[in-house]
Amino acid sequence: GTEGSTLMSYFSKNQIQALKPKITFSTLRDLKCPVLQSNDLQGKPEESCSTEELFEWLGAVLNQVSLDNNSSSFLSTYCCPEPNTVVEKAFLCTITGFIIPEKIIQLLEQLCCYFHEPKLAYWLTLTVHGFADSPVSWRESEHGFHKGGENLYNFVIFRNLDYWLQMALGAHDDCPP
């Protein structure tokens, strides 16, 4: 109808276009990383860290929180869980925008190819965040914002192509299938 054509002319006149995802790269040097064993989700003292410890550490790294356990820091006295190892270089790539599931699968496949090359990494991660105030979440439920609006999942992929899948969601959200 007339309303549809008016909207189309408005959008074309104002050159409103879909925003391309924004991509940023950074290199983290001398990063303390948890030691992980793909077959040990709970971790073992002096051998490996648990999935919960990794998830907490990853949150600190992605939010650029210092891992030095500095008592004079007003922000955080967090430190990397034990056992850990210092990685000379860790690469962080952040893609911000509306990303369809097919692209996420493509990213996962490309990350798995990384292990085909003679690299030193034992594991890598891919974290996918929904917007905190997104109207929908898992299944057919509305997204319960309430406090933090948690709405994310994280793949941890190991050199032998075993993987962990971690999910975080708000208390009022449906659990994913």
Quick synopsis:
This protein is an alpha+beta fold and 177 residues long.
Structural write-up:
The chain contains three helices and five strands. The chain has 177 residues and is an alpha+beta fold. It is globular.
Q: Can you summarize the main beta sheet?
A: 3 strands, antiparallel
Distance between the termini: 40 Å
Low-confidence stretches: none
| Total of helices | 3
Strand content: 25-35%
Rg on CA atoms, Å? 20 Å
Q: How many structural units, i.e. domains?
A: 1
Strand order within the widest beta sheet: 3-4-5
Please tally the β strands and state the result. 5
GO molecular function, one term: ribonuclease MRP activity
Protein name: RPP40 protein
Pfam families: Ribonuc_P_40 (PF08584)
InterPro entries: RNase_P_Rpp40
Properties at a glance:
alpha+beta; 177 residues; RPP40 protein; 3 helices; two-stranded antiparallel ribbon; globular; three-stranded antiparallel beta sheet
List the helices and strands and how they pair.
Layout: H1 2-13, E1 22-34, H2 51-62, E2 84-96, H3 101-113, E3 123-129, E4 151-158, E5 163-169
Antiparallel strand pairs: 1-2, 3-4, 4-5
